[in-house]
Amino acid sequence: MLLMFGTLLFCLAIGVPVFACLGIAAGLAMLQFGLDLLSAPQTIFESLDSFTLMAVPFYILAGNLMQTGGISRRLIHLANSIVGWLRGGLGASSILTCMFFATMSGSSSATTAAIGSSMIPAMEKKGYPKNFAAACVAVGGELGAIIPPSLTMIVYGLVANVSIGSMFIAGILPGLLVGCSLMLTIVLVASLRGFDNVTRVSPGVWLSNVYTALKGSILALLMPVIILGGIYSGIFTATEASVVAVLYGLLVGGLIYRELTLRDLIKTFIDSAVMTGVIMLIVGCAALFAYMLTLNQVPQTFGRFIVEIAGGPIGFLLLANLLLFVAGMFMEAFALIIILVPILAPIAVQFGIDPIHFGMIMIVNICIGMVTPPVGVNLFIACQIANLPIEKLLRPLGIFLAVLILDVLLISYIPWFSMAFL
């Protein structure tokens, strides 16, 4: 077991892709415990043979359609008209746009890529330091995994055997909390450092600008209403909603906005297929790794250890947050969920913590991992767009990490944020 974990951490440290690390670790575990080689592909196949997981490729495709179909551009215009008049408003509008886009894409990486390609150059022209602009988009992109519909919520619901619709409802207030705290941080930093000079507008002009932008983006804003409304009303399931999202994206981007060409459509399908393949590899290898841990009774042993040292729900949540923060620095979101949920969720229930509430704690922690090196997916995407080395983002990122850690503690110890609408 030490060999297995040691190899996993070493491979992650030297930059080997996450699914390859999990495959290497699972392979060593198979050799160590004598697992039949034929059972490995069977375990991987069974982990992917799920109706719920069918939502993953469709939500990825829907998010890519939003990006190429002109929807993301209209959402940026709407967000900028709402908060762009503030000092730091352009940075705040990037967070608000990420919140809008998150209600459609379900993916943090897709949100970062879609919004960053437009907002990072725009913020740089407005006087923002490039590294601060890239950090804004990176932390804003994580809202794609917190605000419903979310792929991480779907995988958590599948592994923890809880209602995905309930997870979606639970994510509303935490998403608003994280988004608003990030916008406030950007406005305060911009005011203190004196960048992003803006021209004040009268309330009448502001309302007129918002109304004009709202008319242009109303069809885009209807998409989350249709998706979430259909799920909550019972018209269709979360998986079926992903198909509805794709059809709506095709209709709006291709037939109404007329910005989705045949060439764009082919590229979108290819990109979505590649992204889906990567995610499914991660899920399959993580499931095999988790299966090996279960065979060796690691969840039970680790669970007893946590119960002994936690002392109660407050101590358990503190330990769980610390573990998830550290693990999120080295592991991809889906792998983290599949490996740690079977270990931590039963302990949370044992301490009287609702699995939906614990799911939101886990997901927000995982999202912080998306913007922490060395395996911060959103950081790499933002750095690629801004053409910056990752170390340039560390200083501005520290401010946002402090805010995100405070958000996690609020969500952890105030269950109302997750359970208010349930």
TrEMBL record:
Matches recorded under InterPro entries: DctM, TRAP_DctM
Record keywords, A-Z: Cell inner membrane, Cell membrane, Membrane, Transmembrane, Transmembrane helix, Transport
Keyword NAD among record annotations: no
Transmembrane feature ranges: 6-31, 43-62, 132-156, 168-192, 213-235, 241-257, 269-293, 305-326, 333-353, 359-381, 393-416
Record bears the keyword Transmembrane: yes
Localization: Cell inner membrane
Membrane topology qualifier: Multi-pass membrane protein
Domain TRAP C4-dicarboxylate transport system permease DctM subunit: 5-417
PANTHER family xrefs: C4-DICARBOXYLATE TRAP TRANSPORTER LARGE PERMEASE PROTEIN DCTM, SIALIC ACID TRAP TRANSPORTER PERMEASE PROTEIN SIAT-RELATED
Family: Belongs to the TRAP transporter large permease family.
Function: Part of the tripartite ATP-independent periplasmic (TRAP) transport system.
Quaternary organization: The complex comprises the extracytoplasmic solute receptor protein and the two transmembrane proteins.
The protein, known as: TRAP transporter large permease protein
Organism: Castellaniella hirudinis
Phylogenetic classification of the source organism: Bacteria, Pseudomonadati, Pseudomonadota, Betaproteobacteria, Burkholderiales
